[in-house]
Known about the structure:
The protein is of the alpha/beta class. It has 14 helices and eleven strands.
Amino acid sequence: MSGEPVQILRVQDGQTIVFNERVLKDILLADHVKDRPVVVVSIAGAYRQGKSFLLNFLLTYLRHNGQSSWIEDTSTPLRGFNWRPGSTRETAGILLWNEVFLMTNSKGEEVAVLLMDTQGTFDCESTMKESTMIFSLSMMTSSVQIYNIMNNIKEDDLQHLQFFAEYGRLAQKDNTTQAFQKLLFLVRDWNWGHEYEYGSRGGRLLMASRLKVTDGQAAELKTLRQNVSSCFSDIDCFLMPNPGKKVMSDKTFDGRLADIDEEFREKLLELVPSILAPENLLVKKINGRKISCQDLMIFFKAHVDVFKGGDLPNPTSMLMATANATNMAAVDKAKKRYMSGMTNRPRRNLDQLRQFHFELLAEAKKVFDEFPKMGGEAISSTSKDVLTKELEELFPHFYDEEKELIKLEKEAEEKRERERQEEKRREEERERERIAEKEKAEAREREIQREREAFKERETALQAQEAESKARLQKLNEDFDRERERAKETEEKMRSEIRAKGIEIDNLKASIQKTQKGLAAMQIMTEVIRFAANSVELARGCVPAQQILPAARSATQLNPAQYPLEILQMLRKK
């Protein structure tokens, strides 16, 4: 048989982690596996409940490479991880089987499979811190965490699981949900097969009933179930029957299948492949990314360093946790009393403040003493010392604050006094300036008064000049009006004369025209007479001489051009 279990981690003196880094490197950094995706199956739970015993059946399956014949040999003793019947611890720390099994999953991918065994929790040799670190590391580094519990899923099993998971999540600095991968509740020696049948089907029904959140549950029970469910990406459950009387009571039992009850063997045929069959191999992931053996080495060391660093809170037992909680509550209440009292502390007097602190400190201690606590006098005394130390450390803050206040007020008063003196000086300066301004204003007022009087004199003179000018203007206007009247009369007279002259001219023109007409008539008459004389011969005495002159006179009333024609007509008539 190749391979053996090797211890990669142990806790010394219940406090100090001893990490065998070289051994882990030899396993994970071997050339043929370091780059392979890794599957880590780990088992954890209370001590002396058959964890190593059951893990060896998974080892047997891997040795047979998953062939159906892996369980056919019923006479060979069970070998692998150290196990034995009894009541004292067998496994210490964290162990790995140093042979890495290369398996091909259902996707045709070759993966490296590791088996991890862990020290049982809550034995008489382990501290709460030791159990917490080992269980938390197991969850943090595995892809499948088998939680081995006895008989049933009990409330304390869930509480322990929640505590370990929260501690592991704190160590990973991962506040997100589903910080871990698969959790398998493996219920051993299930005695109520009539309620839930053995195997995965009955296990899932039991798990659903135990993790169910109902309206009638207390808030803490709801929170517990919600927290457990939120920590893992997948949760399953498997119910295993009792392996038989020989296994439980015969100290010569060596693990051969022939000595184990048939029903137990049948369920092994269901359980082991549900974890290690090709289609069920679950590769370890961190932040959703598959990791290799080489990556696991880095992460394992990083997780160990976190636990070794001392930054995580120190896990304690439930009693110690409760005792610490009650004492811390008492400390908190006493501190609140002190802080509340300090709001009414005397101000601006350091001696009174110090005396007030001592009185308030005594009151706070009394509040602490009267608070109901668990854990006895030792824890109470330690917590009271912590309270006293914290309050003594708080007081200098108030003292320095008051001292600083006094200093600031003194400085402020000195500053105000300087400002008052400066203001007084400035006020005196302003008063001098006001007096000077007043004198200047009075001088200016006198000057303005003189200018006003001079202006008034000039105004009076101008008014006299204006009156004189107005009088002259009025006289000029009156003279102008008289001249205009005379001009108007002269113009009217001239127009009358012009009209008279016009009439005279018109009369003259008429006279001239009349004269001209007379002259023309005379000329015509002369011509007529001449014409008549010349026509006598023609008329041969037909026209008497006495008729010629009247014809001439009539002709003078006609257009001269018509004279001869008119005369001729008259003559013809005759």
